[in-house]
Each structure stands twice: as C-alpha cells, then as structure tokens.
Specification:
four-stranded antiparallel beta sheet; 322 residues; single chain; alpha+beta
Length: 322
C-alpha cells in the first residue's frame, strides 16, 4: 500500500513539473512577442517623427523667390503687373522727378495697376516690395504725343511761405474755367471773366503736411487737362523787428517750433538751440530785446524750424542818444 502511494505521488510530481514547464515556455513566448511589438511600434513612431522633421526642414530651406514685376503699355496707359508668393507689401512708382506714389497691397499675391502716361517724354520707375522686404525694381521710358487742343497747367511754389500759384493757359483756344481741390475735399471752380480769356491764374494756400493737389482746366472746345501734384506744406519762420527808443525788439514765430535761431547784433552772436538752458523745440514764439548803441546798429537773424524750413532777416538802424 505504501508503495502504491509513493508511486502515485511520483507520477503526480512528474505531471506537475511538465505543466510548470509548459507555462514557463508560454510566458517566455508572450514576453518575446510583446517586446518585439513594442520595438516595432517605437521604430514606426521614430520613423514618422523623423519624416515630419525632414519634410518641415526641406520646406523651410526651400528658397522663396523675389517678387515678379512687368510693365505692359496700352493706349496712353501703362499696366503694372506684380506677383509674389508670400504677398506684396506695396508698389511704388514715380514719373520723371515727381513725388513717388505708393499703393498699399496688404499681402495680396498678385495685382495689376493701370496708370496714365503723361504727355511728352517720360521716365517711369517702379518698385515692388514683398512682405519679407524683398524688392524688385525696373524703369522704362514712355512717350505720349501732346494734344495741342488741350490747355496747359503749371504750378509755381517759389512765391513763398505756404503759397502755390496755379497758371492755366491755352494758345489756340479760350479758357472756360479751372477747378482745383486738395485730396478728396470739395472742388473750387474759377470761371473765366470773359469769352476771349486764354489765361487763368490764382494763388492758394498749401495745406500743411503732405497732400495731393488736383487741378483741371477746360477750354472752349470742352477739352480738358488735369494735373495731380503732391505738396509738402511747410511754413518759413516769420520775423518781426521793431525799435522803441533805445531798445530793439525781435519776435520770431513758427507754428511748429524751432530747431535753432542765431542772432547777430552788432557783431555779437547769440544762439538759441538744444544747448540753451531754456530751449523748448515746441515753443512757437521767441522774443528778445537788445540795447542800441550810438551810431549804426546791424541785426542778422537766421531761424530754422523743426520742419527744417529756414529764413534770414537782415536789418540796419542808426541811433542817437537823447
């Protein structure tokens, strides 16, 4: 009986050992499978990430070309054609020696701008600037035959201190009227005083700052000419020098203030600028007084405004002590 039990226990132990061995092999297979799966998954993730980095890097390194610019001439006009992959910031064009005109694009990728060719020989310069500051520039000469039946318009700024003179003439026909306006303000019309008039002139104040003046002249044949010009309205310093008994009083004014004023009185120089203790660039009126000496007195005042306009006053006076 004892021998039978012993044999049965031995058989059971053999079965248990065999079962445990199978479990151990299965566990190893599971661990190996998951290890390989995790490794493959990690390799896939690394590969996808590396591909994205490489793609973005290639995209960043890919050079972006400069803006494109071309000019097409049509009847009495020039078409400016501009393109840019990253967007256009602005287009700047200039006829001859006129003030440049800017057209804001605000990031548009392409644009066509048609501008009228002035009469006669003309040179056009065009510049296109993209959103990155890259620019391209070109220039070309254009000719437009003059229409002899149209009036002519001229402007003269040399008359001084914030004024401009407008002159409209017609050698072959009479003039009916001229109109002018600043920017988008209301037009002012000046009619011809008689039916045979071939000249109309007027003098107007220049608006302060940078403004566009548009002038149109119309003759008896209903032919019209138009001129647009940009003016930078500035004023010169104004001098007021007076004498009272043995005193000389000087007042210099400018509506934007002064950068520098130099006084020379009887050879003695005085300077009002940033090195002067009481200097104020926004002060619009500066006054000084000096004692006159017996005999001839000379005064020279040179003033420069904060908008860089300048003027000079020169004067002499004789004084005899009472």
């Amino acid at each position: 009986m004892n021998q039978i039990l012993l044999t049965n226990n031995q058989n059971n132990n053999k079965k248990n050992n065999k079962y445990n061995g199978n479990n151990s092999k299965d566990m190893k297979r599971i661990i190996i499978f998951f290890s390989i799966a995790i490794l493959v998954f990690a390799i896939l993730i690394i590969g996808v990430y590396a591909y994205k980095i490489s793609k973005n890097k290639n995209k960043e390194e890919q050079p972006i070309g400069k803006p494109e610019l071309s000019l097409e001439e049509t009847e009495n006009e020039v078409k400016i054609i501009a393109k840019s992959e990253i967007g256009i910031n602005k287009i700047i064009y200039t006829w001859n020696d006129d003030e440049p005109k800017e057209v804001e694009m605000n990031g548009r990728t392409d644009h066509e701008e048609s501008i009228e060719v002035p009469e006669g020989e003309n040179s056009l310069k065009v510049k296109v600037i993209d959103q990155n500051g890259e620019e391209i520039e070109t220039s070309k000469d254009f000719y437009r035959e003059e229409d002899k039946e149209k009036p002519k318009i001229e402007t003269d700024e040399t008359i001084g201190n914030g004024k401009v003179k407008i002159t409209a003439t017609d050698e072959n026909n009479t003039l009916k009227y001229i109109t002018y306006k600043w920017n988008d303000e209301q037009e002012t019309t000046i009619e011809a005083e008689d039916e045979s008039q071939t000249l109309i002139e007027t003098t107007i104040d220049v608006k302060r700052g940078k403004n566009t003046l548009k002038i149109t002249a119309v003759n008896g044949l209903a032919k019209e000419a138009t001129v647009e010009k940009i003016f930078n309205g500035v004023n010169n310093p104004v001098f007021e020098v007076t004498r009272d008994k043995n005193k000389l009083y000087m007042k210099i004014t400018h509506d934007m203030g002064f950068k520098k004023i130099e006084f020379t009185v009887n050879g003695q120089e005085y300077v009002y600028d940033e090195n002067f203790s009481g200097y104020n660039p926004e002060q619009k009126e500066i006054s000084y007084k000096f004692d006159l000496k017996t005999g001839e007195n000379t005064v020279i005042i040179h003033a420069i405004s904060t908008e860089d306009t300048e003027d000079t006053y020169r004067g002499k006076c004789n004084y005899t002590a009472e």
